[in-house]
Amino acid sequence: MRARIAQEAARLMAEEGVQDYYAAKRKAAQHLDAPDTRNMPRNNEIEAALEDYQRLFRAGQQASHLKSLREGAVQAMHFLADFNPRLVGSVLSGTAGQHADINLHLFADTPEEVSLFLMGAHIPFQTSDKRMRVSREEWQEFPCYDFLAGDHAVDLVVFPREGRREAPRSPVDGKPMHRAGLEEVEKLLNGS
After folding, report:
1. Distance of CA 185 to the CA centre of its chain
2. Coil, strand or helix: which one is 180?
């Protein structure tokens, strides 16, 4: 049952755009008539099932879709260079589905710097807060800016400048998130 829930959660993430692992697990368990199960898969099991799903059912489209998202990430990173952007999440890991956003971490003295920059560039955006785990037991909220760049949604989370040293925890494995700078993303894009 655990494997079936992981596979169904992966399908929900890939096809329906469910981005939260917990929500995907719960919805998958309901679809499989096992809503009360305590044998839920771990997030890294769902991530592995998502990679398998994309390889099996989206092989032809996945590579071009991922390339397009990474090209958009490189453009956004050039545009936001003053804030030392770092790519994180599914676009970096290669598991980005049809509904994936480009997730960037930015670093500024104040979040208002990012607001003023986007307003100065006449980019319409929405603001929110994103709750992220910063240590084993500690969560913090960070300002978030969302906007569209061409066909892609871009999600910016703003950290203090000193926040570059310690990444928040990954929802997949609980370890510090891998953050990629522009050079690393360009190498991924070029296949080197």
Report:
1. 14
2. strand
pLDDT at 57: 83
Residue 174 confidence (pLDDT): 87
**pLDDT tens-digit series, residues 123-174:** 999 999 999 998 888 999 999 999 998 889 999 999 999 888 889 999 888 8
pLDDT for position 61: 81
Helix (H, G, I), strand (E, B) or coil at 2: helix
Beta strand spans in the chain (E): 86-88, 102-108, 126-133, 139-149, 152-160
* Domain parsing of the chain, residue ranges: 2-57, 61-189
- Topology of domain 61-189 in CATH is Beta Polymerase; domain 2 (3.30.460)
Nearest residue to 157 (alpha-carbon basis) of 91, 121, 105: 105
Cβ–Cβ < 8 Å for 76, 85: yes
- Helix (H) or strand (E) run with residue 90 in it: helix 90-93
User: Which pair of structure tokens corresponds to residue 133?
Assistant: 């785990």
Q: How far apart are CA 28 and CA 147, in angstroms?
A: 30
pTM for the full predicted model:
0.84
